[in-house]
Design goal:
The protein contains 3 helices and no strands. The longest helix is centred in the last third of the chain and has 33 residues.
Length: 88
């Protein structure tokens, strides 16, 4: 199987996806627990758990990106170990 995206794009996507998963998981956890820093003022959303559901949906999307881009990076590593000349 051949990679669809370049190695740089694959590794960049992996890094961004991991960062997004960590940050959004923390934000979603704060909303789910109705932490005062997220739902404490009059301009903040009233229903923290509903907002947390949306944030966790975004975490799932980034997890799918992470799996796809990680697989693409794996394919690039596997392809580069074959040598500079390969017959397709």
């Amino acid at each position: 199987m051949k990679p669809v995206v370049s190695a740089l794009n694959a590794w960049s996507c992996v890094v961004v996806s991991v960062f997004a998963i960590v940050i959004l998981s923390v934000i979603g956890g704060l909303f789910k627990s109705n932490h005062h820093s997220m739902v404490g003022t009059s301009k903040d959303p009233e229903n923290g758990p509903a907002v947390a559901g949306s944030v966790f949906a975004a975490v799932i999307v980034y997890a799918v990106f992470l799996v796809f881009c990680g697989f693409q990076a794996f394919l690039h590593n596997r392809q580069s170990k074959r040598g500079a000349i390969s017959l397709n």
